[in-house]
Design brief:
InterPro entries: Glyco_trans_2-like (IPR001173), Nucleotide-diphossugar_trans (IPR029044). GO terms for molecular function: hexosyltransferase activity. This is CDP-glycerol glycerophosphotransferase. Keywords: Transferase. The chain is α/β, with parallel strands linked by helices. The chain has two domains: about 200 residues, Spore Coat Polysaccharide Biosynthesis Protein SpsA, Chain A (Alpha-Beta Complex), CATH 3.90.550.10; about 110 residues. Helix content is about 45%, strand content about 20%. Strands 1, 2, 3, 4, 5, 6, 7, 8 and 9 form a nine-stranded mixed beta sheet that branches. The longest helix has 21 residues. The chain starts with a strand and ends with a helix.
Length: about 325
């Protein structure tokens, strides 16, 4: 019999964290599951760690491939998965033991196409709230939709969710971006779902790496990384404008207060030449926003968008605080 749930776990050089990840997955109170580990060309001992786990727990399978990136690794895992429901977990993160029971149980009760739950950040000091999710997961909502609960515009990550596999396949959902790959796919899933469940329970612990290579979200100040983020902003905007224009105001408000300002904030670290692609993509996004939505932004955000669009980058830089990395460096001197 196929398992009730398949969990796709791409791994690439996460040897320090993989044991904790697999411990959390094999320890789930929902036991009817398979764990599809996709070794995306790891050059550390992650593959060996995963193979040792297969000898302890037959629910774990390994698929190996040359390094082709997270999007391709996830797609490979989906093709290998057999479960009625589908979930994703990154190899450096942790899932609370009752998370999948709650998520799958909700879908079993409601018949919704997908379900999301709350997230916490994790490091050696413990767990802490993830900023921006307060409204999104403030209470349980059964058989809702992003058009009714527009705070779900901020629910753009794949790993705090479970999907009905038949829905995933029917909508032909796949990952394609080389980085920040979740958002366009997840927003499309939210829009195309007939109904979505929202749980206030914490279902995922997103690690802040304190050793080894930092994760992509911990390298936000790097120009190439920022450019990848801006491509995500634009691609996700394309999805929303094509499929759900009524969500444009909520998305614009979020981007203009957060990701677009991160691009401006990077001017404290890099010159305009280094940030050429970043700023070009950010300006192209702002240029496409209807003027009435820019006018409706809070005064500070509105002013920043006008300065960015007009090319007055020095004044824009003066209006934003430096990135946290700059502040921390100054405080440590």
């Amino acid at each position: 019999m196929p398992p009730l749930l398949s969990i796709v776990v791409p791994i690439f050089d996460v040897e320090r964290y993989l044991h904790a990840c697999l411990t959390s997955l094999t320890g789930q109170t929902l036991t009817d599951l398979e764990i599809v580990v996709v070794d995306d060309g790891s050059v550390d001992t992650g593959g060996d760690i995963a193979r040792a786990w297969t000898r302890k727990d037959p629910r774990i399978r390994i698929v190996e491939q040359p390094n082709t990136g997270l999007s391709a690794a996830r797609n490979t895992g989906v093709r290998a998965a057999n479960g009625t429901y589908l979930a994703f977990c990154d190899g450096d993160d942790v899932v609370p033991e009752g998370a999948y029971a709650a998520l799958v149980g909700s879908l079993e009760e409601t018949g919704s196409d997908m379900v999301s739950g709350d997230v916490r950040r994790l490091d050696s000091g413990g767990v802490r709230p993830h900023p921006g999710y307060e409204d999104t997961f403030s209470r349980a909502r059964r058989r809702t939709h992003i058009r009714r609960h527009t705070a779900l515009v901020r629910d753009r990550m794949v790993w705090n969710k479970v999907f009905r596999r038949s829905f995933w396949d029917a909508r032909k959902l796949t990952f394609s971006l080389p980085a920040y790959e979740d958002a366009p796919v997840m927003i499309r899933a939210h829009i195309e779902a007939t109904a979505v469940d929202v749980l206030p329970e914490v279902v995922y612990l997103w690690r802040i790496r304190e050793a080894g290579a930092p994760s992509i979200t911990q390298r936000r100040d790097d120009p190439a990384n920022l450019a990848a983020c801006m491509r995500m902003v634009v691609d996700t905007f394309d999805v929303i404008t094509a499929q759900a224009r009524d969500l444009v105001p909520a998305y614009v408000e979020d981007m203009c207060h957060n990701d677009i300002q991160d691009a401006i904030r990077a001017l404290h670290l890099h010159d305009e030449t280094a940030l050429g692609e970043v700023l070009s993509l950010a300006r192209s996004f702002v240029a496409r926003v209807p003027p009435d939505l820019i006018a409706a932004l809070p005064a500070e955000d509105r002013r920043l968008m006008h300065l960015l669009h007009g090319g007055d980058l020095e004044r824009a830089r003066q209006l934003v605080d430096p990135p946290p990395s700059v502040t921390l460096a100054k405080e440590s001197r």
